[in-house]
Amino acid sequence: MTSQLSSVYPAANTNGSTVCNTPACAQTAAAIMKDVDLTLDPCSDFYQYTCGSWLKTATIPEDESSTGTFRVLQNDNYQILQQIFEGTYDDLLKKSNATEGFHLDDQGDLDRANFALVSDYYRSCMNLDIIDSLGPTPVYAELSQLLSKFIQENRRFITGEDRNILTETALFAYFKGVETLFSFSVVPDDKKPDTIVITLAQPDLILPSREYYEQPDVLAIFREGLVDIFMHIVGAGNGTDSDPIRAQKASQENLHLYSRDEITGMVNRFVDFETKLANATVKREDMQDPIALYNVMSLADIQQKYDFLDWERFLRFWVPESSPLPKNLIVATPSYFDKLSQWFRQDVSTENIREFILIRHVMAKIHALDTTSRQLQQTMSSKIASGTSVMRPRSQICTRNTASTFGQLVGRFYVMADFGGEKEREGLLVFLDRIHDAWLNRLPEMEWLDSETRAKAVEKVNKIKHKVGYNINSPDLRSPQSLRDFYGSVKISPTSFFENQESTTLWSLRRGWGKYGKPTDRFEWFMSPQEVNAYYSPNYNEIVVPAGILHTTFYDFHAPDYLNYGSIGMIIGHELTHAFDNSGRMYDGNGALQQWWTNATSKAFEEKTKCFIDQYNNFTIKGADNKEYHVNGKMTLGENLADNGGLSAAFIAYQELTKSSDMSNVRLPGLDQLSPEALFFINFGRTWCSLERPQMAVQQIFVDVHSPNRVRVNGVIQNSDDFAKVFQCPAGTPMNPSNKCRVW
Question: If one looks up domain 177-369 in CATH, what number appears?
Answer without folding.
Answer: 1.10.1380.10
